[in-house]
């Protein structure tokens, strides 16, 4: 993982939206929100592993919280936003 709790991350500009789920289970978790490419997310918990994906608890700029994958170890969908 390239992220840590307290970081901000940007959804990749390539590959589409990141689903944000109610649970960290990436196969059965209910999707409540889709973070769009370029959207900034706050990392507030994690990481966890779900089916080979690195999963974080995130909060959107509008205050929605849920779980979304950073990547699968080879491909990343969230990128650190740093100073």
Please explain how this structure is put together:
This protein is mainly β and 83 residues long. Helix content is 0%, strand content 52%. It is built from no helices and 7 strands. The strands form 2 sheets. Strands 6-5-4-1-7 form a 5-stranded antiparallel β-sheet, with no helix packed on it. Strand 5 and strand 6 form a beta hairpin. It is globular, with a radius of gyration of 11 Å. The relative contact order is 0.31. The mean pLDDT is 94.
Report the radius of gyration as a whole number of Å: 11 Å
Distance between the termini: 18 Å
Category by helix and strand content: mainly beta
Q: If helices are DSSP runs of H or I spanning 4 or more residues, what is the number of helices?
A: 0
Strand content: over 45%
Could you give a short account of the major beta sheet? Answer: 5 strands, antiparallel
General form: globular
The helix fraction, in percent, is under 10%
Mean pLDDT: 94
Summarize the model shown.
The protein has 83 residues and is an all-beta fold.
List the helices and strands and how they pair.
Layout: E1 8-11, E2 18-21, E3 31-35, E4 40-50, E5 53-60, E6 65-71, E7 78-81
Antiparallel strand pairs: 1-4, 1-7, 2-3, 4-5, 5-6
Q: Which key terms come to mind for this protein?
A:
five-stranded antiparallel beta sheet, 83 residues, two-stranded antiparallel ribbon
